[in-house]
Design a protein that fits this description.
This protein is α+β, with helices and mostly antiparallel strands. Helix content is 14%, strand content 14%. Strand 1 (28-29) and strand 2 (36-37) form a beta hairpin. Belongs to the bacterial ribosomal protein bL32 family.
């Protein structure tokens, strides 16, 4: 079984873990209220998804 020869330093470990999230989520315009929203999600402002009201406000 493979065993590390030396302890991995904190700096080396933290460098490896810094890039786990590369991009922020994209935003699109809601067709109903024109507010920015995450694609394929219900709009937080008006509650519409795919032209239908899913969450009543």
């Amino acid at each position: 079984m493979a065993v590390p020869k030396r302890k991995v330093s904190k700096a080396r470990k933290r460098k490896r873990r810094t890039h786990w999230k590369l991009f922020a989520p994209n935003l699109v315009e809601c067709p109903q209220c024109h507010a920015p929203k995450i694609p394929h999600r219900v709009c937080k402002e008006c509650g519409y998804y795919k032209g239908r009201e899913v969450v009543s406000s």
